[in-house]
Write a structure and sequence with these properties.
This protein is mainly β. The chain has three helices and 29 strands.
């Protein structure tokens, strides 16, 4: 098993370090050319497969390995607000993702520093005490210096991360690092924890693209196959942009046994997929990185294995991340920016037909000229919905609510699924 490192003693923040010098122009041109070649090889389907992976489409997928508690849904309207990151903890905070731990607690991961892409950016986690409604102090679990030591290569910056448990109780961290250039020069890395995030194995690089293994990024939480595979929505962002599903086979020793990559049909211009199981397959919501500025969806009828071409829907999207979950009553719940430009609001919407049409819900935030973005939704074992998001690029905010509150604010009783 890879060595463990204790994150509890890491300093909560570090002074900003100067940005690395820009990469030389010939190297940047080479990276762009490599990106075009990689895109041609991977956009049509499977990028790689390990013989240790189960073959073919999964027979069943779920959104969580933590089953809901056998209690009826709450009848009252509940809405609470709290802060995941303390005021002034870092100058900038962004890109939170939430998971339910095997013990039922919520954990959030995000990155913070002087600004996005700065050399002092680090990954932090915090957990929610459901009894008191308070968050633990943030714990630093990865920064640029630690990534360099773990991966044995120069690291310019760290970025988006997701955190999730597997069915054996291991907690997994998949995170983005960049050695050369901007986010299009990113790579995916993985570490794991057997003690719910107190200690972590040494980070390892995931080789998921041919040649230079560049431009794979992650944003949203995974789905789980009954055979033990984990389907992680990822995306590619060099020369062209498209969404993919990365199927991983986790091992008990904290390593990944193998992977298989699947792309959408004709997926150009959409990124940051959010995936939810349906009765016979899955539905994907996608950020519009192209000119349409509409939220896109794609459908799968074989449990997130193969996908239709993405279709622009009725909701606007200002080239911003969205997230969705399935509520206990069967509806989809979406958190997104309801605008064709800018991120000055954050709104909820529900769908009773697997994302083909949407019913507008309440605004969670709205303030001209400010940013509320990168939402992450999850439902806890009790049936409470939790939403974390970037608040004005300064902090990570958390709101907790019940379906009753959602429906009251949406104008009455829910439409029937």
């Amino acid at each position: 098993m890879p060595p463990l490192r204790d994150t509890t003693g890491l300093a909560p923040d570090a002074p900003a370090a100067p940005m690395d010098a820009p990469s030389p122009a010939p190297l940047r041109r080479g990276v762009r050319v490599a990106g075009i070649v990689i895109a041609l090889l991977t956009a049509i389907g499977v990028a790689s497969q390990s013989p240790s992976l189960p073959r073919g489409a999964p027979t069943q997928i779920t959104a969580s390995i933590v089953p809901p508690a056998p209690v009826p849904a709450e009848r009252g309207a509940v809405f609470r607000e709290s802060w995941v990151s303390p005021a002034g903890f870092t100058a900038s905070a962004h890109s939170s993702v939430t998971c339910v731990l095997p013990d039922g607690r919520l954990m959030v991961v995000w990155f913070g520093g002087s600004r996005e892409g700065a050399a002092d950016v680090a990954l932090f986690t915090a957990t929610l005490d459901a009894t008191t409604g308070t968050w633990s102090p943030p714990a630093k679990i990865m920064d640029r210096e630690q990534a360099q030591r773990d991966l044995g290569r120069p690291i310019r910056k760290v970025g988006n991360a997701v955190i999730f448990p597997d069915r054996d109780g291991t907690l997994w961290l998949v995170y983005v690092t960049v050695t050369v250039g901007g986010w299009s020069g990113s790579a995916l890395n993985v570490a794991s924890s057997r003690d719910l995030g107190r200690t972590w194995t040494t980070g390892r690089r995931l080789t998921v693209n041919p040649f230079f293994n560049l431009s794979s990024l992650v944003r949203n939480k995974p789905v789980y196959a009954a055979d033990g595979r984990i389907g992680l929505p990822v995306y590619f962002e060099m020369a062209t942009t498209y969404a993919q599903m990365l199927w991983l086979a986790p091992m008990a020793d904290g390593r990944v046994a193998g992977f298989e990559m699947h792309s959408l049909l004709d997926p150009k211009g959409v990124i940051q997929p959010a995936v939810v199981p349906t009765a016979t397959g899955a539905v994907m919501a996608l950020r519009d990185h192209g000119p349409q500025r509409r939220l896109h969806t794609a459908q799968s009828d074989d449990h997130a294995w193969t996908w239709s071409a993405p279709v622009a829907g009725e909701l606007p999207n200002p080239d911003a991340a969205a997230d969705m979950i399935r509520l206990r009553d069967g509806r989809l719940l979406l958190a997104y920016n309801h605008a064709a430009a800018g991120r000055a609001n954050l709104r909820l919407a529900t769908s009773s037909d697997d994302g083909r049409t949407w019913r507008p819900g309440p605004m969670v935030e709205e303030e001209a000229g400010r940013e509320f973005s990168y939402p992450s939704l999850i439902e806890d074992p009790r049936g409470r919905v939790h939403l974390t998001y970037t608040w004005k690029r300064e902090r990570i905010k958390h709101v907790e609510f019940t379906a009753v509150w959602l429906d009251e604010k949406s104008g009455g009783a829910p439409a029937q699924p």
